[in-house]
Amino acid sequence: MDQVIIHVDMDAFYASVEIRDDPSLTGKPLIIGSLPKERGVVATASYEARKYGVHSGMNIKEAYRLCPGGIYMHPDMDKYKAISGQLHEIWNSYATALEGVAYDEAYLDVKEQAVDFDGARRIAYEIKRRTLEELGLTCSVGVAYSKTAAKTASEEKKPDGYFEIRTPEDFINLVIDRDVRSLYTVGAMTAEKLYSYGIHTVRDIQDKKDMVISLLGKQGRWITQLAYGIDDRAVTPYRPEDAKSISREVTFQEDVMSFEFLKDVLVLLALCVEHRADRYGLHGNGVTLKITYGDMKGITRSRLAPHCDSAAKIYQNAAQLLDGVERGPVRLVGAGIYNLSGEEDRQMTIEDLISGDIDHNNSMTDLLQRLQTRYHLDFAGNLDKIYKADVLHRTVEYMRKHFDQNSK
Ligand code: TTP
Ligand code: MG
User: Fold this and answer.
1) Which of 51, 110, 137, 205 satisfies CB 3.0 to 4.6 Å to 114 for a cystine?
2) Tell me, what's the pLDDT at 343?
3) Does 105 qualify as catalytic in the annotation?
4) How remote is the CA of residue 11 from the centroid of ligand 1, in Å?
5) Are the C-beta atoms of 211 and 197 separated by less than 8 Å?
């Protein structure tokens, strides 16, 4: 299959948006994420901040140590989401299929519109021009014969870059001496495993392909193919129902000891998960609980829960999972549903008929009532704001302080 694929990725996305909207930030090291006094991580950093070694995912305290003179800001997700919508409109007008990977990143199947690589280059520059003129933002674009090569190409000349990789041979020549992680499906854990067997570069994967396959099985076969530039995956339009799971989580500013308190937090997380599932008409068939302890050790527990579509069911399952995990100081708690299906698949079960959704609604009302009384919260009329990450986070912090005071 001969493909012509564009991969487009915005440059320092959140940071660039904030600089566009406040030109006084231009040329300054800007770090979007948590604030230095909080707990959390860097979402992204302007290229000036990256010069200090600051990068996405870095602990914010570490970022502050490296770049104390930086400007630190919280992300404004609503704003980025709106811009993402505008970007998708531009991208959509050039693609037969568009696969969004993140707010700021997508694969475009342009074979029909572009015909060949020269046509794709014209489209790529057109996208760059329109993104700058209409949205005041720069992006980097890669054109290639495969998804992996297109992503590699868009990274190649960042920021405001353009690069082409027309054949598997060109791809191999480019990456052969690079770290195994330059093949995008190789994550940190897999890389560590490969390193420990002396496999550091793409060339090593080629040279020791039998070892890679016996070490990693199916994934090893896939990685070996990538090392030879083979990747036939088509650009597949993203549909929310293809999502594997829906989850929400919160990180506490100080570790939490009380599991009773964690259960109260699970009530709010369950509401948030239900809300997101509702938006797409989805329900889960299993519930997950995620815990990160104070020492950064993380665990996930899950259990089957057919037709899990209400906050009450999500909460009940997550709370039961929590009862089964090791006690200790907790830094992060999350809850979610997986194994999603759409409304049309929904069939009433005997269980539903007996228990009835009304019961679930009632138990949720009771749970919320308990939270209101215990923490002196007033949810009335503004419960819908809890779905926003920053409101959820603030509410949970407020609850935590309240809980700590009352248990002293
Ligand atoms: P990226 O495209 O990975 O990064 P970027 O656009 O900031 O910078 P680059 O020029 O290197 O592409 O991610 C897009 C946005 O997603 C980013 O602006 C912030 C967010 N993000 C996080 O919140 N956490 C993360 O760990 C990463 C990698 C990104
Ligand atoms: Mg980006």
Assistant:
1) 110
2) 52
3) yes
4) 8
5) yes
d(CA 5, CA 101): 14
Give me the pLDDT at residue 339, please: 84
pLDDT at residue 358 in the model: 43
Q: Are 397 and 253 in contact (CB under 8 A)?
A: yes
pLDDT digits (tens, 9 = 90+) for 5-63: 999 999 999 999 999 999 999 999 999 999 999 988 899 999 999 999 999 989 999 99
| Nearest atom, ligand 1, residue 10 CA | 6
**Alpha helix segments (H runs only) across 22-110:** 47-50, 60-66, 77-92
Compute the residue count for the chain: 408
| CATH number, position 360 | 3.30.1490.100
Residue 351 has a pLDDT of 43
Q: What is the rounded average pLDDT of the residues 387-405?
A: 90
| Domain-embedded: residue 35 | yes
CA of 265 to the centre of ligand 2 (A): 32
* Nearest residue to 307 via CA among 270, 348, 279: 348
| Ligand 1 atom with least separation from CA of 14 | 18
Nearest CA to ligand 1 atom 12: 11
Residues in contact with ligand 1 (CB, 6 Å cut-off): 9-14, 43-44, 56-57, 102, 104-105, 158-159
Atom of ligand 1 nearest to the CA of 32: 19
Q: Let me know if residue 92 belongs to a domain.
A: no
- Asked if residue 347 is part of any domain, the answer here is yes
Q: Tell me if 94 sits within 8 A of 127, measured CB to CB.
A: yes
User: Could you tell me the distance, in angstroms and rounded to a whole number, from the CA of residue 263 to the centre of ligand 1?
Assistant: 32
Task: Output the CA 219–ligand 2 centroid distance in Å.
Answer: 26
End position of a domain, from candidates 77, 93, 122 = 77
CB atoms within 10 A of CB 26: 11
Q: pTM of the prediction?
A: 0.68
- What was the pLDDT predicted at 345? 44
> Where is the domain boundary, 25, 49, 77?
77
* Residues 279, 352 within the same domain: yes
Of the residues 48, 105, 164, 274, which is catalytic? 105
